[in-house]
Amino acid sequence: MVSLSTENLQIGYGDKTIVENLNLQINKGEITTIIGANGCGKSTILKTLARVHSAKSGIVYLDGKMIHKVPTKEIAKKMAVLPQSPEAPNGLTVYELVSFGRSPHQSGFGRLTDNDRKVIDWALEVTGLTSFSAQPVDALSGGQRQRAWIAMAIAQETDLLLLDEPTTYLDMAHQLEILQLLEKLNREQSRTIVMVIHDLNHASRFSHHMVALRSGTIVKEGTADEVMTPDVLKTVFQIDAEIVKDPRTKKPVCLCYDLIEKEQSLDKRRDMNF
């Protein structure tokens, strides 16, 4: 099973440092979610883990090897990546897109084998896209396109899946379907999954391990019970959250919340009126 970790990672763009001294261990065979406010470095960390973005300093280890020294094809056999808002060439069909997931396993002229076709058909089926396989990706709805990209990622058959906001554009039912699919892949095939996700309740429900970030720094990591607390959410999101237990899953749920800054400004205005 593939392992992934970082050592004193510093990440940024140009002169701007976004993440500094990041030491992160992705647990094998678990679902890890990264949560945090917009701009805190979640997607940048995921890109760096996937070697899409280069770190300023520090090391990403894949199976104990420095990832920048691992051949690209070897990485692609171990790690599938779904970026945020990917785009496909005009006219590319759903089947063709999903077939790209088989590229790391092909040799020679890159022709699809019977096994490749079997895996592609399976990926289309579990994402509910079998009937759309001949349609152009750019003719699909936003939610259907997102499912097509997820189908491509799982067709790659890697032990490790990195997904940046995989439920984007999906309605509530399809969000749940995709997350349950990822949960099934984790449970039945022991795939290690790392997700950036905005919905805290989904993160809590489907994670073994959560990592909460603020300004590129880990505020708290651990189980949902350890991370989904009023104090952690106050630090990470500047909100006053009410946390309860989900009666079905027994996981913590953010029932409601208020903005702390708003509350403080209201208190100031009240004081000025006296």
Q: What global shape is seen?
A: globular
Provide the β-strand percentage band: 25-35%
Low-pLDDT sequence parts: none
CATH architecture: 3-Layer(aba) Sandwich
User: Strand order across the biggest sheet?
Assistant: 7-8-9-4-10-11
**In CATH terms, what is the fold-level topology?**
Rossmann fold
- Main sheet specs: 6 strands, mixed
Total number of helices: 10
Find the structural class using helix and strand composition: alpha/beta
Number of strands: 13
Helical residue percent band? 25-40%
Q: State the separation between the terminal residues, measured CA to CA.
A: 65 Å
In short:
The chain has helices at 42-49, 72-78, 94-99, 114-126, 142-155, 172-189, 200-206, 224-227, 230-237, 260-273, and strands at residues 4-13, 16-22, 25-26, 31-36, 57-62, 65-66, 79-82, 160-164, 192-196, 209-214, 217-222, 239-245, 252-259.
Walk me through this protein's architecture.
This protein has one domain: P-loop containing nucleotide triphosphate hydrolases (Rossmann fold, 3-Layer(aba) Sandwich). Helices cover 36% and strands 27% of the residues. It has ten helices and 13 strands. The strands form three sheets. The chain has a six-stranded mixed sheet with strand order 7-8-9-4-10-11, with helices on both faces. Strands 1, 2, 3, 5 and 6 form a five-stranded antiparallel sheet that branches. The longest helix has 18 residues. It is globular and about 55 Å long. The termini are far apart. The mean pLDDT is 91.
